[in-house]
Amino acid sequence: MTLISFVVPAFRVQGYLRECLDSILGQPETDIEVIAVDDCSPDASGDIIDEYAARDQRVHSVRLPENVGLGPARNIGLDRAVGEYVWFIDGDDWLAPECLTEVAERLRGTRPDVLLVDHVRTHWNDTATRSAMAEVFPESPGTGTFQLRDRPEAMRLLHTAWNRLVRREFLVDLGLRFAPGWYEDVSFSYPVLMAAQRIGVLDRVCVNYRQRRAGAITRTRGDRHFEVFPQWHRVFHLMDSWGSATDALRPAVFERMIWHYLTVLGNGQRIAPELRQAFFAQITADYERWLPPGGYPVPDGVEGIKHRLVAAGRWRTFSALRTAGRARDTARRKARSARRRVGPVARRGARLTRDGLLREYYRAELHRPIDPTLAVYASYWYRGYSCNPAAIYEIARQLAPGVRGVWIVRRDRVDTVPTGVEYVVAGTPAYFRVLARARWLINNVNFPDFVRKRPEQVHLQTHHGTPVKVMGLDQQRYPIGAGRMDFAGLLRRVDRWDYSVSANSFSTQMWDRAYPATYTTLEVGYPRNDRLVTAGPDEVRRLRAEFGLGPDEQVVLYAPTHREHLPGYRPPFDPDRFVRALGDSGRLLMRSHYFHDRDRRPGRPVDWERVRDVSGYQRVEDLYLMADVLVTDYSSAMFDYAVLDRPIVLYTPDWEAYRLARGVYFDVTAEPPGAVATTFADLLDLFRTDAVRSEAATKAREHFRGRFCTLDDGRAAERVVRQVFLGEPSEQSSRC
Fold first, then answer.
1. 28, CA 20 to 30 Å: which among 231, 244, 336, 665?
2. What is the model's pTM?
């Protein structure tokens, strides 16, 4: 018999589900199965589950035709489980590495009905908060088992389904199911403990309980939080049906109920002010209804006062106590902030500088009316006219001619702006004016921190690549690659986004976890790739002729990415040896990452007869169209170039170092878009033998294109313009 059946319900967790499944399947203990239930999720969760089921026979995919909610989804998974124990893990949480070894050892050694395990709350800022395990069990509970009446303090551990493994036969015999609605863990977790004859505790952190910045019900206001009451009613009705067997536990269960109610009420992110009095009244009603005949252990201190006010139904006093407590906490925060505040004189002096005066001008412009026809565009920190914003700008001129587009560029990049394109220079009064008054703000990176998005403004974040390397909040786990990145500042910038353009489902999943906020995702393909689809042979011939490239020459574009953790690093690459390996008809175009646009030194450039440095060329799409083969490493160029369905070679001499220091979302060497070379000698051999066009390389590219390029049909920019500028409904359809 399989030892453990993991039941993993999935709903709107596409950004986290891979980490969850990987954490289970990567454990040393392999005597497991995973029943992953797609609860008719509107995102790619179901597709991810199917992908894992296709490559690992331990994973079983269940696709529900309609959304049933977390509790019923768990029940459906339970009905399909065959393991001796069942472990319900939420799709946005994940297991600690190698924890399953100790879990399995304890299960096999003691055969408990329930095994409680420890957890940590893992916050979006990469900090962690320990559970109450050490407080509940100040001394190790040991390896033995017990009944709840002997150690009722076990009820003080968090009442979730995922911090306990339950013997499946015991659960089936008990007939216990998850109830529908929110707070479904309550009417499962407490009854399981009360009915168990053998409870074990493993004081080892096994679960990372993700504290999501956006999307969690604990951060969602609404009247659905009133569903906590019927869940607790189910607990007491079940105790009534069990008779006197649970009488001794009623006081402790009652105390937990009131504690839970007050916890929900005290969370301003759950109960809106206008609902608080009604919620309090329901607590009082349940207090009177379920109070044990002999009373219960009332907590000490402020918590005890709250319990007594609930018992008396004194809402006004309770509310006044809460207000006083919040005022005290606010005063303490202000005092701490005042102690940290330094340099007011220096700040006043800074306002006298030119930059300070321009910022004052910007703040004044924020009070002037929005220009309903103005759209501001920018790319790569004002490096010029390019990328997704440029593609959107061009289509907007056709479909929304009433919108006036203005570009922001650096002074040293003005000469790259095409004729007829209106622009302002970064740092000038006109720059601050358009930022303050534009209706639309379009960028493929973030605008500076000083920019304040007004309620009438629409911020469109286009991004500039499908991510191989980790991005956003995920970089917190890779401090070498992240450098001195200000993650709190990053999130303030992300909170300005109204729309986020995604090239494919994979990007959507990664942006969800890297940039958690309330923006709308436009999974439409990349606008900059439209040209790769629509350009015909005549345009390719024209471009090659302009570059002096013959129609029979083999043109290779070499475009390595930037290494944040190794400034100045260049992969070992000898252009002269490379073109000799190409043969007499070979030509090489070399393009460095845009981060290096200011550090190219004069002197002997890469500009030989058969090698050309195209790093300064503005439109990379032209280079893709001219090239017969792309050589890159971890750059997003591979995803764009794959649209052309031409050979791609990955040259990855530092893959292991890059993966460990910078962090990656997937092993691009295991799922490449073509041939892979890890040394320069191997790279030369691939071209000498024409292995870049081998059957294996072609099949790899086909698989890669199927995963990442299906949306690139030449209409991505149009879809963005129609939805963002014209307000037309999205073409995206529901997955259920």
1. 665
2. 0.83
